Amino acid sequence: MRKSIVVAALLLGVALVVGSPARADVGCGCVKLGQNPMCTATVEECVGKIGGLCLAPCDYQAPKMAKKHKKKM
Questions:
Q1: 3-class DSSP string for the chain
Q2: Which residues of the chain register pLDDT less than 50?
Q3: Residue 72 maps to a domain
């Protein structure tokens, strides 16, 4: 029984990795109990900073820098 569960888990993991596009900006789908899932850049960021669990790869896009507006004088 355990062998079949392990084999099923490995096949599911392979299916998730093979099904995702080969991109350099693949992040971690971070899930924490009681909060909405979010995409983080690395597994360490998910586990260390947020205290969640990395479940699946996601398409990570870094937050854009805010533009400073100059005041007219």
A1: CHHHHHHHHHHHHHHHHHHCCCCCCEEEEEECCCCCCEEECCHHHHHHHHCCEEEEEEECCCCCCCCCCCCCC
A2: 20, 23
A3: no
- The predicted pLDDT at position 23 comes to 47
Tell me the CA distances in angstroms from 11 to 7, 68, 69, one per residue in order: 6, 49, 52
Range of the domain at 29: 23-61
Per-residue model confidence (pLDDT) at position 25: 62
- State how far Cα 11 lies from the chain centre: 20
The number of angstroms, rounded, from the C-alpha of 53 to the middle of its chain's C-alpha atoms is 9
